[in-house]
Design brief:
mainly alpha; 10 helices; 0% strand; 246 residues
Length: 246
């Protein structure tokens, strides 16, 4: 963080506000890590996002905890813990550039899928939840540990299949991400990933995150869902491609 130029620091603050406005409005987001990876190492960004995620999820749950689908949360968390254990191993042994390229592929692929999904009529095929739940939970734990904010997309897919209302969806994603944050945070503490750079980045980001959550809460009830999903998908595609070829 000490090496950031003034434009890079302003970019950092802007991305934190925008990404947590999205998190505040939808309960999850996926753009924080890929966009910040342009100016900060993933070895700093991912643990930082873990701490910020705990705080932002707690802020959402402060008012929305009554809407949480606790039964489905309890079912998926054990699989998420398995994914965290796998993810923290690879996060420890892989270098930052390799992590960035893998993240670029994940972001680009999901961004394209999410964009196409906004024009695709709802499917009528019932997927087996016995397979969906462990797959989504393990992938979310793994990807979330490796890439921070990207875990939400797997939880979102899981809850979307369950066809929950908007309020239940937002609250339950926030609750799941809170639980994931605790698991990831413990794993990072155990492996020594909370460095001075991570803590400094968190201190700078916290006020920006609070502003983003405030904005997201205010627009939550007035979102155009389709336009919002398309905007996030396009941002993911734009941010994922450069990471893939860096």
């Amino acid at each position: 963080m000490d090496a950031l130029t003034t434009p890079e620091l302003l970019y950092f603050c802007f991305i934190i506000v925008i990404s947590y406005a999205i998190r505040g409005s939808a309960g999850f987001g996926g753009i924080t890590v890929p966009l910040l990876a342009w100016v900060i190492s993933l070895k700093t960004v991912v643990p930082m996002v873990t701490l910020l995620g705990l705080v932002s999820s707690a802020a959402i749950l402060r008012t929305d905890y009554r809407h949480v689908a606790w039964r489905d949360l309890r079912r998926i968390l054990p699989w998420t813990a398995l994914g965290v254990a796998i993810g923290v191993y690879f996060f420890k042994i892989l270098d930052a550039n390799t992590l960035a390229r893998i993240l670029g592929g994940v972001v680009l692929g999901y961004g394209g899928y999410a964009l196409l999904a906004t024009w695709r009529p709802p499917g009528k095929v019932k997927l087996p939840m016995a397979a969906i739940m462990p797959t989504a939970g393990t992938l979310a734990g793994f990807v979330g540990t490796m890439f921070g904010s990207m875990a939400g997309m797997f939880f979102a897919i899981y809850l979307d299949i369950l066809r929950y209302s908007r309020d239940v969806f937002r609250a339950t994603v926030a609750a799941i991400l809170f639980g994931l944050g605790i698991l990831r945070g413990g794993a990072y503490v155990a492996t020594g990933e909370f460095t001075r750079d991570v803590l400094v980045a968190c201190a700078i980001a916290l006020p920006m995150m609070a502003l983003g959550i405030f904005i997201g809460d205010r627009v939550h009830a007035n979102l155009n869902d389709i336009a919002f999903k398309r905007l996030v998908a396009v941002i993911l595609i734009i941010s994922g491609l450069p990471l893939l070829i860096r």
